[in-house]
Amino acid sequence: MKVKSIGLIGIGMVAGVAASFQFSAMAQKPGSAPLPLDELRQLTDVFGLIKTDYVEPVEDRKLLSEAITGMVASLDPHSVYLDKKALREMQESMQGRFVGLGIEVAMEEGYVKIVTPIEDSPAFRAGIKAGDLITRIDSTPIKGLSLDEAIKKMRGEPKSKVVLTIARKGDDMPWIVPLVREEIRVQSVKARMVEPGYGWLRISQFQEQTVDDMVKKVNALYAQDPKLKGLVLDLRNDPGGLLPGAIGVSAAFLPHDKPIVSTAGQRRDSNEVFYGRREFYASRSGADPLAKLPAALKNVPVIVLVNTGSASASEIVAGALQDYKRAIIMGTQTFGKGSVQTLRPLTKDTAVKLTTARYFTPNGRSIQAKGIVPDIMVDESAEGDGLNSLRVREADLEKHLSDGSGKDSVDPGKARRDELEEDQRAQALAKSRKPLEFGSKDDFQLAQALNQFKGLPVKLSKVEPVHDKEADKAKDKAAVKPAPDVKPPELNKGDKK
Asked: What order do you get walking across the sheet with 189-195 strand by strand?
């Protein structure tokens, strides 16, 4: 079974995984090719036929809105037209709050599959687990609906009710779950001392306040132990978010002014290098939030935990720290979302979220459809990679963007999934267990990170990934270079766009 598409319920849009957004109000590129008049004439002809011949009248606004929606959605899984409601909900989600059920979902064989319930959400409290299938929403069967249509049916106002019918592997009968939608606030940054001398810093999503929140949490850790011996930066299941947050988190661990990530696209302003300095991660006014961090953070040993749910902005952080050999990356291959989505306003209430560029690590490695391969491969549990092995990746999505090399994207985890997929699927779906709580005493990957710090044996994945040899060569180069076609001297005059 191949998962065909993925979305995040609650943020109010079909997002695949949360994108690393840039915001722009740029107009159409000057000097672009002339409009294809014959094809546009066909479009107006079809519009006219529907108006005159369809079985019942259809509003002009609906036809035009659906035409725009279909045109943008045909490009790739992350480009989308945002109407008034979707635009408002997306803006709210970037502030770390949204109204919904609190579940990450994917469409599989015509049903909506639960990928991850969000901690302390209505779905989590009701006992919904990863791997469950939603077969009905209220009285409407899911079979035959698109993921977008299913998501819209699960949206609603705070305190409104919805009833899900859930099928679970091993249960003879489906069960009915009444839920009440609520505003869910995602805590972007968590931290605690997991053992004397070792801290755990988790970023669940990159939001507007992530850099400031990270600074507070790191200072709290150093207040408890000024001689911290190791720090685990946990980016597992972090779907991404805002680009400045990823730059700021990376810059916290790296020397000042290092290139963090570069972009390459069709427009001139889509080719840019982002550096680890204040104007790239902080607001235009105010002091540099990273100036408040303890100097020891620049040298403390760091292990970054990632998995298949780590995407976009979290891959930017992992890739930068890996390229500079500043941290050991541990876990499983990341999602592979290395594309930039830019918000282009159309009216005051509508916009298009359009893919405008690809991301590259400081060494020029493409993230798109490849992801970040950990330095040390470690499964989710001692028994195997569990539910993580069932997650969809960017390369599995229909119409996904290539890596830009002109060659088929190398999938470093393919051999691993081919060999273990069926065993892991049966094993994971057959188990009835509560979702893994990251940072808990039962967190196997965190335990392996602590073993690595202490020089103790680490239990590795059962199958080594197939490495991209060209990427390995690039990673080993001493000199750090920007992505192809990027011209740093010309693009880095003045403030960032």
From this structure: 189-195, 198-203, 230-234, 302-306, 328-331, 376-377
Q: In terms of Cα–Cα distance, which of 28, 148, 139, 108 is closest to 390?
A: 108
Class at the top of the CATH hierarchy for domain 108-185: mainly beta
pTM to 2 decimal places: 0.73
- The model's confidence at residue 234, banded by pLDDT at 50, 70 and 90, is very high
Position 266 scores a pLDDT of: 92
Contact 43, 377 (CB under 8 A): no
Host H or E run for residue 167: strand 161-167
H/E segment holding residue 92: helix 84-94
d(CA 404, CA 417): 24
Active site residues: 312, 323, 337
321-330 tens-digit pLDDT? 999 999 999 9
Task: Domain 189-403+437-466: state its class.
Answer: alpha beta
234 neighbors 221 (Cβ within 8 angstroms): no
Q: What mean pLDDT is predicted for residues 233-237? A: 95
In the chain, where the domains are located: 108-185, 189-403+437-466
Listed residue (193, 138, 187, 132) closest to 160, CA to CA: 138
